Task: structure prediction
Amino acid sequence: MHKSRIPNEVFVKLPDASLPEFNGNIDNWSNFKAQFDSLITNNSTLNETQKLFYLRSVLKGDAKLVETQEDTFNSLMKVLIDRYENKRLIVSNRILNILNIEKIHLESARDLRNLVDTINKSLRGLKLLELEANEFVHQILINVVIQKIDKETRKQYEMSLSTNELPNWDKFIEFLRKRSQVLENTNGTHQQTRVKIN
Result:
């Protein structure tokens, strides 16, 4: 028997990452561009022809119809940036996504999760445009979101505050996450009880 040497580094093959697709929806542009740049644009092992091939392969819908005078990666990317990197429109859409969240009338784990996910997606999109939320923005967001949540959740939140100090944004979002989890757990218990009774 021969002693085999175990290498210090073990390489594990990860599954191939699928490339992000872009269908021309301006709300998805920032996320798409950040991911595509990370995987393809900044990949030094790919030449310009390969990058152009990958870029064309992920464009769908209206974005697939975009044409350039030159058939190069840089020219196509420039036209896409000129068309879809409309920061004013993107910021406006992100803010409206938060303001237009439907009011939750009854306690619902799913609705609370959707509310938190919509807010996080919008804030992440703004962050990609290098717009950071400050304390003033957080206080506005808290007051907007409080108007959207159901009466019982709002009551529970008010009861969780121990002082008259301004509420903290991260703690507020964490409260909503925990609240949706509690609702999910209690609804699951009720369903199981009904099944047993039947």
Q: What stands out?
A: The chain has a mean pLDDT of 85. The chain has two domains: 26-85, 87-189. Residues 87-189 form one domain.
